[in-house]
Write a structure and sequence with these properties.
This protein is of the alpha+beta class. The chain is 63% helix and 14% strand. The chain has seven helices and three strands; from the N terminus they run H-H-H-H-H-E-H-E-E-H. The protein has a three-stranded antiparallel sheet. Strand 2 and strand 3 form a beta hairpin. The longest helix has 32 residues. It is elongated.
């Protein structure tokens, strides 16, 4: 009898979890960022976390072991490749959805409520219409500026915005090249014209 109840809880929880991760990975993330590899990663980590949590609950194992395992896997995954802060945020929400739906599988209304909160936050926080004009680029210049003011003026002329912060990360006097980490504001009038191809060119060799 208990096995049947546990199985039904897992089925309900898995159904809710699959719907939630589909909304997050496909409808929210992929439609905005178009990265198939990260979509697969989010689905994989979500379903993997849900499966392990469901197994631990079914076997009445110590959940502390499971949480410790998730922590180790998260650190390994995040250190294995360079992720943007946006991708890290989606990664942890995908993990959280797996935990929520695994732990609250016996309480579907609670799981649905928590899933709705997480998805609504991500939908709003990463909405393209939010008034964010700040950009970040790692710029490689084919000239070495010895004066910060001249460097700032050159960056603003190339980027067409106001430099908020600049940090020189590399200088090569042999090749006459310098690498600068830049954060800058894009004028409001130019923002609609900033398409992905243009953004990629901004980060290339200037």
């Amino acid at each position: 009898m208990r096995r049947t109840a546990v199985l039904m809880d897992v089925v309900y929880g898995l159904t809710v979890d699959l719907v939630a991760i589909t909304v997050l990975a496909q409808l929210i993330y992929f439609r905005r960022h178009r990265r198939r590899d990260m979509r697969l990663a989010y689905v994989a980590v979500n379903v993997g976390v849900f499966t392990v949590v469901a197994l631990l609950l079914a076997q009445r194992a110590d959940l502390a072991i499971g949480f410790g395992l998730f922590g180790v896997l998260s650190i390994i995954r995040l250190r294995s490749s360079a992720l943007t802060q946006e991708e890290v945020g989606y990664y942890f929400v995908a993990l959280a959805l797996g935990l929520v739906n695994g732990l609250a599988a016996h309480d579907v209304p609670l799981a649905l409520t928590l899933d709705a909160v997480l998805l609504a936050v991500m939908f709003a926080a990463d909405h393209p219409r939010l008034p964010d004009r700040t950009r970040h680029r790692l710029i490689t210049l084919d000239v070495v500026h010895r004066d910060d003011a001249a460097l700032r003026a050159d960056l603003e002329n190339r980027l067409g915005g106001t430099v908020l912060r600049q940090e020189v990360t590399e200088v090569d006097y042999v090749r006459d090249v310098m690498v600068v980490d830049v954060r800058y504001n894009v004028p409001a009038a130019r923002r609609p014209d900033l398409v992905p191809s243009q953004a990629a060119r901004n980060g290339a060799l200037l």
